[in-house]
Amino acid sequence: MLLRWLFLLVWVVLPGCSGPTRVVRLDTGRGSPTVHVPRSDRASEPVVLDEDDVKEAVARLARTLRPSQRPEEAARRLFEVDSRSGSYLFDVRSRRITPLRPGEHLAAELPQAEIELTRAYLRWCERTGRGGDCLGLLKEGPSVTGGARFTLALSLAKGAVLDELWEAVKDMAHPEALMQAALWTAATYALLWTVPEPATKGVAAVLTAALIVYVGVDTFWGLIQGFRQLMAESDQAVTFDALREAGERFGRVMGRNAARAFVMLATAAIGSTGATLGAKLPGLPGAAQVAVRAEAQAGVTYAGVAQVETVAVAADGFTFALAPGAVAMSSRGTRGGGSTPGGYQEWQTHGGLYKGRGSAGPGREWHHIVEQTEGNVRQFGPEAIHNTENVIALDKALHDLVSAFYSSKRPRITNSNLTVREWLSTQSYQAQRDFGLLAIENIGKGIWR
To answer: Would you kindly state where each structural domain of the chain is located, as residue ranges?
Structure first.
């Protein structure tokens, strides 16, 4: 059996954890990590992704990509996974790998079971209407083996979501290459969780943090355990039906909503760095809800997700190592940092603010990021509202658009029938601030119209 990627065959089950919600540790490099326990409140409700919104987002992302003709190799480069070459013997029962000595070779003929599995895969591609090597599983070998088995099982797990992905890209110049790139990116990323002492860095770390705030800490923990089980079953499967059953079992664990988030974020990760993936997050479906749940689930602001440098799995949850510049963003109290040339200032009243700051400038108006509603002033105190970090100058045209947006009902953004302002009033100060910054960015770019 030829293995180009040795660690594909490693399966380690971390010790199971009993008890309630897993925690997130925030390591800023200064003292002991801060332990965050995800809250159970309205801000922690799952982000519901609409099918049409996700397809539109995937199509938009795909138009900017130049997919590789070797998607497995491209995914390995993206996640900085070394390509392993050489010949090995693998004993399924003992799970031991033995390198062949110089001069030794594997049998020239493929095992019959492997041949039949490959034929069944090609027949499945024909039945889906795509034909040929539709998932790009045979570009680095003549049969469905190793990582190709896992990618096939994972694609079967996605079920209808795979069809949605195809619908999003089918009218583009190279739809098969785009779909293969997304699937191999998702599969290779998932495989990072099957190695001993799993941890992700760079673009994979930002992808992990984003997935956690989309689906929640406990759901993501369950996905990791499901990935490992799917990996083990894929290694041992000898028929297409066995792979399908393994995939369908994992599909039930994942659920359609988490699968949509997984495919969407994996597509956004293609060709990205941690920083460029972070820059794409505000424009994705569900970003508004994620902005108000990031703090509740992971203890970081939504902007702070892009500043996560590594994510490691511990027995009781996850550890986020944050970039030095993300220290202030990871804490709830962000006031007092002196973000303006004149230093940080705060006022007791609206009038005092305007007297102290003067004019916003020609064609510009002062804008409260966390709105100066009666409820906010009562809940957070006037100084939290009227200060130099919460009040910024905006062009009048943009300010008018933001104000109108807050007064409107946007159920596809808020997942409610309330106005944006009414929905936002139920959130924490930091969640309102994150959403306010996101609204300015997305309205300014025309993403939220």
So the answer is: 6-326, 350-444
